Amino acid sequence: MFTTQRRRAQGAVSSSLLFTVIIVIAIAAAGWFLVIRPHMQAVKSDQAPKIVVPKESASKAAPSPANVSAMSTDQLLAEAAKAVSEERLLAPAGNNAFEFYLKVLERDPNNAVAKQALRETFPFGANEAEQEINNRNFNEAQREINLLAKADPDNYTLTILRSKLDAQRKTATKQQQQAQAALLAQQQAAQHRQQQAAAARRKQAQAAQEAVSKKAAEQPKNQTASTSNEAPSAPSQPKVQIQDAVLINSVQARYPRTALRRGQQGWVQVQFTVDTDGKVTKARVVDARPKRVFDRAALNAVDRWKFRPALRNGQPFPVTMSRRIEFKLNQ
Predict the structure, then answer these.
(1) What pLDDT is attached to residue 193?
(2) Which of 179, 289, 315, 321 has the largest CB neighbor count within 10 A?
(3) Is 317 contained in some domain?
(4) Looking at 117, 141, 172, which one is the last position of a domain?
């Protein structure tokens, strides 16, 4: 009797132990797929630097992947992580981290990795959009704001960015109108000066002709014929009028993130040519302190400057200029 009860108890313990082992295995498997694997993917994406760099560098860094629609969720997450590591948060269009993460959420609205990544990178994306506004790349800034709105439509930062974009657009339009009015006034003034100079030359030539005629009339009659054949003195050559090129639209240089983190300051001396259309060409660095820290940022800014071209007697001609670009903190 006792032996039978003992065997039954041992069998119950063995069944309970087996059932417990099965439950532990099931929990471990669920933890791997639901917690550990997404966490590893999130960590992998979080390892990328969050500092935003200019779109020129990002767009040259990687070509746009082919057939994004045919990618799997894992492939999209991998492309998004790669874009973050290469600091392509919002640009270039079609090949940036935000668009890849948003594509993942289109397929899987509850994907924890994509949600977390968009939440963590949103402030840096907003900073990138603000830089585009400051550089007056208004179309690019609008595209990036629209992309941020898809990630977090209720974020108050979007209201600030949209207000700043609208204000900058109005300011740019006003400045452009003022520059056009100033250019028109300068052209009219130059034309007026040319007309005055031409009238003065005609008056001078007429006075010289009258002086020759008067002198010929006062000479003896036997010398009148030879004197009348003499050519009048040529009018003096007009002076050459030079007007320097005038900067009408400047772009502020971006402060390099590496220098910002290190608290570095400095300057770059840039030499460039302003062509007859007022565009900057052949920009190069002739000196800098410190070396090769702010060079690229300075050149990128100067290449976007717009000048009223230099004039020689009212006609535009190319000139070579030099400017120092300062990089100072808390300015």
Answers:
(1) 93
(2) 321
(3) yes
(4) 172
Cβ proximity of 271 and 223 under 8 Å: no
Identify the CATH number of the domain in which residue 289 sits. 3.30.2420.10
The CATH number for 84's domain is: 1.25.40
Model confidence pLDDT, tens digit, residues 72-113: 999 999 999 999 999 999 999 999 999 999 999 999 999 999
Q: How many residues can be counted in the chain? A: 331
Residue 209 within a domain: no
| Cβ-based neighbour number of residue 114 at 10 Å | 30
In whole angstroms, what is the distance from residue 48 CA to residue 70 CA? 25
Cα gap 209→213, rounded to integer Å: 6
Q: Which residue among 157, 172, 187 closes a domain? A: 172
How far apart CA 293 and CA 306 sit, in angstroms, is 25
Share of the chain above pLDDT 90, in %: 60
End-to-end Cα, the chain, rounded Å: 94
Rounded CA gap, 102 and 299, in Å? 34
Q: DSSP states of 224-284 as a string?
A: HHHHHTSPPPPPPPPPP-EE--EEEE--PPPPPHHHHHHT--EEEEEEEEE-TTSBEEEEE
